[in-house]
Amino acid sequence: MDPHKFHGKDIPHIKLDPNMTIEQLVDVFASSGYNGRQLGEAAKLFARMIEEDATICLTVSGAMTPVGFGGIIKTLIERGFVDWIITTGANVYHEDHFAWGLPVKQGSFDVDDMKLYENEIVRIRDVYIKFVETLETEDKIIQSMFENEFTEKPFTTAEFCNMMGKISKEKAKYPEKSFITAAYEYDVPVYISTMKDSSLALNLAVHRLQNKVYNLDFVREIIEQAAILYNSKKSGILELGGGVPKNTAQQTGPLLDQILKRNDGGQDYVIQITDARPDTGGLSGATLQEGKSWGKVQDAHHGMITVYADATIAFPILALYVLSNQKARKPKRLYKKLSKYYDHLSQDYFNTPGVKRNTKKKN
Asked: 240 lies in which domain range?
């Protein structure tokens, strides 16, 4: 429809009912305006992605797990509504606190941090974490997990998180309280977009000082991520915040088309929840339409919605909406298919006219 003409749905005089369902509330949002409308339409697009059996990537920036949102991610994994994840090391590290029963409490943002430091309390906005009982204990757990893992050959962050989920599943006190253990159980690849920028990498330092070498194969994992898109009939992203996780998911299109000459076209659907402005030129606030110029998305006019809101407010609404009205999907179990997807992309690339395979022996 021509957006410059006077047509569209009538704006209702909204009436709320104490007995309303989440579906009815989302309908209220979708029939209104501003970011309420965007939120309602985003929830419906998430449902459409599920209905059309799109391969769905969840990207999570910042630190969402210290406020307990890992439980929401876990539920979406169990229902088959999230097929692979790109997140920060912070979200993986802090999620493991819950699996091992380490204390994380509500605190205050209006506080004297000098006094918190004296009391050995670490603050993330209004969330308190004990320095010794939680952080140092978690550090010892991570150090123990990876003392003898991944020191012999290159690894990806998906392999790192899969191993972490396996160990926590087998040894943690509350393994059911972790989306990392759920990802392990359901073969959902979890990639850490900035491994060295987290406590996970910091804890490998004690082993590196003993000459144990950790070789992160970051190139293989970006190929794996592109291969997931390449091997999917339809593909979509739900982005919580922006930053590196957002770009890591979206750069799958340029890798396939710009570098590997696949003419894939990018993602079919993208939902972005962000509080970042587009006019600063940063990736976190960059519009999804801008991504079309890079080949990150299939269509600049359809299948994309940006909600300018705090993800801690909007994400539970989107999640509860699809949990309420969508049937569980059979898990795609992408983790076990990564090698096959990688090989498929590799074969197609080397079958492209003009591309020659290097036949020199490796050193």
From this structure: 22-90+151-350
Beta strands per DSSP E along 193-268:
235-240
Question: Considering the domain boundaries, does residue 232 fall inside one?
Answer: yes
Measured distance CA(130)–CA(134) in Å, rounded: 5
What is the count of structural domains for the chain?
A: 1
Per the residue annotation, which of 296, 337, 361, 362 is the catalytic one?
296
* Residue 133 included in any domain: no
Numbers of helices and strands, H then E, in the chain: 15, 9
pTM for the structure as a whole: 0.95
Which tokens hold the place of 310? 């705090």
Adjacent-strand bridge partners of 84 = 57
Residue 185: CATH number of its domain: 3.40.910.10
Contact 178, 99 (CB under 8 A): yes
Tell me the C-alpha distance between 260 and 316, whole Å. 37
| Residue whose structure tokens are 């922006």 | 242
Q: How far apart are CA 330 and CA 347, in angstroms?
A: 28
Instruction: Find how far residue 301's CA is from the centre of its chain.
Output: 24
Does a structural domain hold residue 212? yes
**Which residue is it, tokens 């599943």?**
169
**Run of H or E residues at 56:** strand 55-60
- DSSP lists the bridge partners of residue 57 as 84, 237
246 is catalytic: no
Q: Convert the pLDDT of each residue in 204-216 to its tens digit.
A: 999 999 999 999 9
pLDDT digits (tens, 9 = 90+) for 55-101: 999 999 999 999 999 999 999 999 999 999 999 999 999 999 999 99
